[in-house]
UniProtKB/TrEMBL annotation:
This is 3-oxoacyl-[acyl-carrier-protein] synthase 2. Pfam families: ketoacyl-synt (PF00109), Ketoacyl-synt_C (PF02801). It comes from Winmispira thermophila (strain ATCC 700085 / DSM 6578 / Z-1203) (Spirochaeta thermophila). Residues 2-410 form the Ketosynthase family 3 (KS3) domain. The active site is at 162 (for beta-ketoacyl synthase activity). Pathway: Lipid metabolism; fatty acid biosynthesis. Involved in the type II fatty acid elongation cycle. Catalyzes the elongation of a wide range of acyl-ACP by the addition of two carbons from malonyl-ACP to an acyl acceptor. Can efficiently catalyze the conversion of palmitoleoyl-ACP (cis-hexadec-9-enoyl-ACP) to cis-vaccenoyl-ACP (cis-octadec-11-enoyl-ACP), an essential step in the thermal regulation of fatty acid composition. The keyword Transferase applies.
Amino acid sequence: MKKRVVITGMGAVTSLGHSVSQLWEAVKRGECGIDRITHFDTTEYACRIAAEVKDFDARAVIGKEARKMDPFSQFAVASAIEAMRDAGLADGGVDPERLGVVIGNGIGGFETLEDSFRTLFEKGPSRVAPLTIPKIIGNIAPGNIAMYFNAQGPCYTITTACSSGTDAIGEGLRLIREDEADVVIVGGTEAAITPLGIAGFIVIQALSTKYNDSPKKASRPFDKHRDGFVMGEGAGVLILESLEHAKARGARIHAELAGYGMTCDAYHLTAPHPEGRGAVKAIQRALGDAGLSPEDIDYVNAHGTSTPLNDPIETRAIKQAFGEHAYKLKVSSTKSMTGHCIGAAGAIEAILSTMAIVDQFFPPTINQEEPDPECDLDYVPNEGKKGRIRAAISETFGFGGHNGVVVIKEYRE
């Protein structure tokens, strides 16, 4: 028997709020966090919109150590603080040597990197800030979380592009099942709304450029008039715990993390396999790991990037993986509201999938005004709805062909 793993805490920092409750209520209302970019001057940019985190005071949440962190670390630590408080573990309750941290990140400290390059070129090498490297490196987000909570167990970063957050959750599941930890802080974080981050995605024609004057309409997954994704930023963190450990301390349990599957397309640098081959296999592996059949799933939080390539291929993959049951599923892309948060996407969407189960509410896909004929499933268009959700999958697919899927289900004794 596999050791059962449950979700006992959640935390988030996003364009829709700096807590899970703010994020979830905004998603239920179908609000959109996308607006014109304020982080830098976008005059020369073909894409001038993003889902920025607004009015976030890292020092107020984290303390003076926040000044030593790039925003991607600040988002992760702040989300972990909320998640540990939600789990009732902020003040202890777990052996430090049995507390792990796994955080996904796609890009790392881009803001610090760009600032440091500017200083290097303009003022010379001696003027580069001493904390440049400790702020840039991708592993520093879990490192900062570990130092904050004295987590002395396994601690590392997963970097699998847009699947990073999902794969971090899957790694946490494995650590607990393999008895390497009792509790693992997992999730994903990203802060790449920077001049280089936006420019880099523009030149590979990944970002939306048609909706600069109507940013709330720009992310439109599965819609006929989509033209690319919209960059988001933020973090999502979940507390995974063995059921035995959670019950022993009387923890509140949000849901059960039942399964995980990952594959690689081994096909193309940026494009998914045309038939969604790797995505199908990842879904099947996650269901098999959870011991569930396709008919046991009621909701799919889709990768749903709003790019011309992804959406019909993902639709095809869902239909192959679920068969006729695909037409009974509710499928939605919450990226229509949060933007695409890259390494944080999978974690934020796993949180929203968990909240969907807790509230028995299907989040909407906003801006689906004219469905693409190739996208013919029920995407919960424009308005969320109440309904029975026994189990959900959250799926993410990243550059390099990475595919990650987690299965979350109602907790039952």
